[in-house]
TrEMBL record:
Organism encoding this protein: Halovibrio variabilis
Matching Pfam families: DUF1007
Record protein name field: Membrane protein
Domain of life where this protein originates: Bacteria
InterPro entries: DUF1007 (IPR010412)
Signal peptide: 1-24
Keywords: Signal
């Protein structure tokens, strides 16, 4: 691989990680945790998301960043974080949020960071709601998914069950929190399994394989 500079490598890497034209069955995964942000009045204003890229992609990132001329790992991660943020912005941050089943408009991400943590590439960001909404007597649900299903997004888990800290809410003790597993139609499962590496599935295929985070404050 010819080293043409950090910017060229970052562009290629982000394209491989989050390309909207990637093949449709998952070739990697992201471990997700979400903290729902509320103010003192129980009004939700955003989701603090932590994504941990799988070990293979993480290893690729760190090895390549270390070989880019005239750049250190910290500089590379800073630029990678910006490129990931910019790419995600074009895909609505791969996140859908609903309150009482009504879709919520999302704001622009301005707080984010990419880092190495325990050998994994970790991307953290705050995704604001365009208009903060009260949680009292309401139900908030969200899904985070790659529309192409190239990358599978799953909440952090132990022993096949979501961790207690995979979904966290502060300030509303009467709310019930749950992470609901995906339940795709068997035909869609077969469709995804049969896709070759050079084939793409229908737009939005990843939605059917997405877990749902739910905060019920009714």
């Amino acid at each position: 691989m010819k080293r043409t500079g950090l910017s060229a490598f970052i562009a290629l890497l982000v394209g491989a990680l989050l390309s909207p034209q990637a093949s449709a069955h998952p070739h990697g995964w992201i471990d997700l945790s979400v903290r729902v942000l509320t103010d003192d009045n129980g009004v939700v204003n955003g989701l603090h998301q932590t994504w941990r890229m799988d070990p293979f992609y993480s290893l690729l990132v760190f090895e390549e960043l270390q070989q880019v001329e005239n750049a250190n790992l910290e500089q590379g991660l800073d630029q990678l974080g910006k490129e990931i943020r910019d790419n995600l912005a074009r895909q609505h941050y791969m996140t859908e949020v609903r309150i009482n089943n009504e879709p919520q408009a999302l704001g622009e991400v301005s707080e984010y960071t990419a880092m190495e943590r325990d050998g994994r590439l970790t991307f953290m960001f705050i995704l604001p709601l365009e208009t903060p909404q009260p949680l009292a007597n309401a139900t908030l649900t969200y899904q985070v998914f790659d529309p192409t299903y190239y990358l599978e997004v799953v909440h952090e888990e132990d022993g096949g069950q979501p961790r207690d800290n995979a979904l966290v809410l502060h300030g509303e003790p009467d709310c019930e929190l749950a992470i609901l597993p995906a339940d795709p139609d068997p035909e869609l499962v077969m469709q995804a399994a049969l896709l070759d590496k050079d084939e793409s599935g229908e737009p939005g295929l990843g939605r059917y394989f997405a877990e749902t985070g739910r905060i019920d404050c009714r």
